[in-house]
Write a structure and sequence with these properties.
A: about 230 residues, three-stranded antiparallel sheet, 11 strands, B: about 220 residues, ten-stranded mixed sheet, three-stranded mixed sheet, 5 helices, about 30% strand
Chain lengths: ~230, ~220, ~230, ~220
C-alpha cells in the first residue's frame, strides 16, 4: 500500500503557486473542498485559473477567492448564484470561459484518462463552437473538445483511506471523481480518513492511484444554498 | 391564461409511463407535482441523482443531497447517485426520455436561447446545452411574451443560442405548440384564450389548422 | 421507480435475431453472463457479431457459440485461451476484428455516453491504425476511434434491484459496466435480485437507466480458468 | 545465463518505492515475488484491480477475483476494484509508473512486437497496445534469442508491431540493455556471459561503452 496521507491542509497545498490552474470539485456549495479553499484564501495565491462548475456564493466557497481578486480566469458552466462573479465578468476584471456542464465534466475525465480530444454534440451552432472543429457523425453535428490541463485538482470526498481511495456521499459526488487524476497533483480532503483495509474495495469510487495527497478536513460547514423542506 | 403551476400541470400530461425525465430550474421543477401517480417515472437531476424524491421534511435536510437547482431533496427507493461525467453520459447518450426546460426565446425552427443576454446577464448555460443537443424529446415551458409584452416565440432568436433546431414542443401561458417544418403549429389554447390572442403574441409563423381545442387538464 | 424485472432468461432475450450485434461482458470466464450465453446457444441464433474481450474456452462461455458456428464475427482484444477460435480465425471461417483492450472498453463507454469518436494513442503505428485518422496532440500521435453500435448488451452483475441498478463484485466487474447502455437494449443477469430500496444508492455502480431488463440467473457455475493457489 | 526467475529478480530492482506497476503475463508476473519488502508498491492488473496480492491459500480462491492472466489472486488492504474503462483510463492517463511485459521482438528504436505471427498464431494484443502506447516507463522481459537461436533484438521488427519507439529498457537472459538514440546500449551482463556472446546474439546495433559490469541481484 502506497501511503498518501499528509498531516493537514497546509502540507496538502505545498507547491501551489501564483498563476497556476486549479480544478475544484463541487456543485454549488455541495461537495466543495472547503478546507482547501480556505487555505487558498489564507495563502493569498494570485492570478489563478479555476476550473469549477460554479463559483460559490459571495461569502462561501470560491466566492471567497473572487472577493479577494485572486482569480484571473474562471472556467465554469453556471455562475448564476454569485453577484460579485457576474460583476467582475461583465466589467472585464476577470476572464471567463463558459463551458457546457457535460463538456466540463468530460474534459476533466478526458484529462484523467489520457483522451486528448473527443466529439460531443453539446454547443453545436452556439458561441461555444466558435473556433472549434465540427464534424458530422451519424447524421448529427458535433464539436471537438479538448482535455483540460491543470496543475492541481482539489476534491472533497466523504470517506477516504491512507491509500488515497475515495468514497463520495449523495450528490456531493458531482465533479469530484472526474477531477481526480485530471490535474498533475490531486489533493483530496475527506470527512473521515480511515486506515487501509477499512473500505470495501467494491465500494471505492476513486482508486488511490488518482490521488497524490489525502487529509481529513478540520471541520465542514456544508452550507445549504437553497433550503427547501415540506411540513411533516 | 395559465399561471406557472398550470403550465407545469399541462406539461405533466406529456410525461408517460416508464419515462426518465430531466427537469430544468423554474417552472419545469413544478412538473413533478402534477405527474399522475399511477405511472412509473424517474426524475434525473444532472448533478448526480436518479430517482429524485420530494423536498425533505423539516429538519431532515441533507446538505449532501441537492438537485440541480441547489435545493435540498430526497432520494426514493431505487435511487442511485453518480458523478457528473456519468450523469451527462446519460444525457448525451439519450437515455433520458424527456427534457423540460425554460427559455428566453424560441425560434420557429426550434432554436432556443436561455443562457445569456449580452452585456447584461450571464448566468451560464449549465447543463442546458448538453441537454438540448442530446435529448430526442424536449419541451419548453415559458411565458409567451416578456414583461414588455414582446413575443418570445420568434422567426429567429436574437439572443445567443443554447441549441439549434432542437425544441419539439412548447407549453406557454397561452398555448401548446409543436415546432415542425420551420413553423410553430398551434395545438391547444389556454382556457379563455382565443386563437387571435395567440397569433398576436407570436412573432414567428404560427400555423393554425382546423379547430383549435382548449387545453384539458 | 421504473420496474425492469423480467421473469427469466427466455423473456430477457426476447427480440434477439440472426445477424444482430451483441456486446457481452466478462474477462476470460470471469463475470460473463452465463445464463444468457446458454440461452443464445439454445435459441441457436445465427450469424451474430459479438463484441467481447475474450471468446470463452472451448466448452464454456462464448466458446459454446463458437463451436456451433453461430458467430459470424468476433470483436475482441485477446483470444489466446480458445483453440477453436484460433482455428476458425486462421481458416477464415470467422471474421475477427482485434481491438486494443482499452480501446475496446472506451468504444463501449463512448457508445453509452453519446461520444461518437475520441482519440487514443493505443495502436498508433500498428495494423490497428490502418485506415484510421491519426493526429498529433501534445507532441504525441493518436488515432481516432469510433463508438461501437450494438443491438443488445448482455451483462452480468452480482446484485441488482427491480429498478435495474447494478452492483458488481471483485474483478467480475471488468467490461460489464462500460457495456451497460451501450447497446440498444441492455439485459442484465444478476446473482441476487432485490426489491428497490435495498441497495445503498451510494454503492450502485450502474444506475438502472442503463438497463432495460433484469433477471436473477438460475445458477452460476463461475468456472475458474487458471486455478493458482499457495499452501497454507 | 539467467533463467526466468532470475530475469524477474533483476527487473525487480527497477521497481522503486511508491510505484504503481502493471505486470504482463509470463515472466513479468514473477517480478512480484522479488520486490523488496521495505518499499511500498502497488500492482495493477488491467482487468480491474489495484493492490493485487499473492495467490490465495488453497480452498480460498474466488472465481470473481482474478488477474489479467486469468489466475486466481487476492486483494491486499487498500485495494480497489474498478471497471475496464477506468482501468485503461489509469493506463492511458499515465498514472501507472512502470509497465513490464514480454516481447517476441524488439527493434533498436524501441518498437515492440508481441501479439501476432501472421498465418500462424494470433492471440490478440489484449491490453499491450494501450500499455506500450501510454506508459512512460516500459521494461521488456524476454529471451535474447528464439528457440532456433535467432536474435529477437533486431534492427527492425519483422512481426506486426504492438507499439512504436516505446521500449526503454530490456532485461533478457543475457543482458540488461537500454534503448536510446536508435540503438541498444549494453548496461550489464548476466553472470558468466561475455560481451562477445551478447554481441553475437544481438542482430541490432549494440553499443558497448567502457567496462560492462556483471549484474548484481
Amino acid at each position: 500500500m502506497i501511503n498518501k496521507t499528509v498531516a493537514n491542509v497546509r502540507e496538502a497545498c505545498e507547491g501551489i503557486d501564483d498563476g497556476m490552474t486549479f480544478m475544484l470539485g463541487g456543485f454549488g456549495l455541495c461537495g466543495i473542498p472547503e478546507n482547501i479553499i480556505n487555505e487558498l484564501v489564507r495563502r493569498n495565491v494570485q492570478g489563478v485559473t479555476c476550473i469549477s462548475n460554479n463559483a460559490g456564493v459571495d461569502d462561501f466557497g470560491l466566492g471567497l477567492l473572487l472577493k479577494k481578486h485572486q482569480i484571473k480566469k474562471m472556467i465554469s458552466s453556471y455562475v448564476g448564484e454569485n453577484a460579485e462573479f457576474e460583476r467582475q465578468m461583465l466589467s472585464g476584471e476577470m476572464e471567463v470561459e463558459l463551458v457546457p456542464q457535460g463538456t466540463l465534466a468530460q474534459r476533466c475525465e478526458a484529462a484523467r484518462t489520457g483522451i486528448p480530444a473527443f466529439f460531443t454534440p453539446a454547443g453545436y451552432g452556439t458561441e461555444v463552437a466558435e473556433g472549434k472543429e465540427t464534424r458530422e457523425f451519424n447524421g448529427k453535428m458535433h464539436i471537438m473538445e479538448r482535455a483540460f490541463e491543470a496543475d492541481f485538482s482539489f476534491v472533497k470526498a466523504w470517506k477516504g483511506d491512507e491509500a488515497g481511495n475515495l468514497i463520495f456521499k449523495g450528490t456531493a459526488r458531482n465533479f469530484n471523481p472526474a477531477m481526480c487524476g485530471a490535474g498533475k497533483i490531486t489533493v483530496a480532503e475527506v470527512e473521515e480518513l480511515v486506515p487501509a483495509g477499512e473500505l470495501d474495495p467494491n465500494h471505492v469510487h476513486i482508486p488511490g492511484i488518482f490521488v497524490q495527497r489525502i487529509f481529513q478536513g478540520e471541520k465542514y460547514e456544508k452550507r445549504i444554498e437553497q433550503l427547501t423542506v415540506r411540513k411533516k | 391564461m395559465l399561471d406557472k403551476n398550470q403550465i407545469a400541470q399541462r406539461i405533466a400530461k406529456e410525461v408517460k409511463d416508464g419515462y426518465y425525465v430531466n427537469l430544468g430550474i423554474g417552472i419545469p421543477t413544478l412538473v413533478a407535482n402534477f405527474v399522475r401517480d399511477d405511472i412509473s417515472v424517474e426524475f434525473q437531476s444532472e448533478n448526480g441523482i436518479l430517482g429524485m424524491g420530494p423536498f425533505p421534511y423539516e429538519g431532515e435536510e441533507d446538505p449532501d443531497l441537492i438537485n440541480a437547482g441547489k435545493q435540498t431533496i430526497t432520494a426514493l427507493p431505487g435511487a442511485s447517485f453518480f458523478d457528473s461525467a456519468m450523469s451527462f453520459g446519460m444525457i448525451r447518450g439519450q437515455h433520458v426520455d424527456l427534457t423540460i426546460l425554460g427559455a428566453m426565446e424560441v425560434s420557429q425552427n426550434g432554436d432556443i436561447a436561455n443562457w445569456k443576454i449580452p452585456g447584461k446577464m450571464v448566468k451560464g448555460m449549465g447543463g442546458a446545452m448538453d441537454l438540448v443537443a442530446s435529448a430526442e424529446n424536449i419541451i419548453v415551458a415559458m411565458m409567451h411574451t416578456n414583461r414588455a409584452g414582446e413575443s418570445k416565440l420568434l422567426k429567429e432568436c436574437t439572443l445567443p443560442l443554447t441549441g439549434v433546431a432542437c425544441v419539439k414542443k412548447i407549453v406557454s401561458n397561452l398555448a401548446v405548440m409543436e415546432v415542425r417544418d420551420g413553423k410553430f403549429h398551434l395545438l391547444e389554447r389556454a382556457p379563455g384564450v382565443s386563437v387571435e390572442e395567440i397569433q398576436q403574441a407570436t412573432e414567428g409563423d404560427l400555423v393554425v389548422e382546423g379547430d383549435i381545442p382548449e387545453m384539458k387538464f
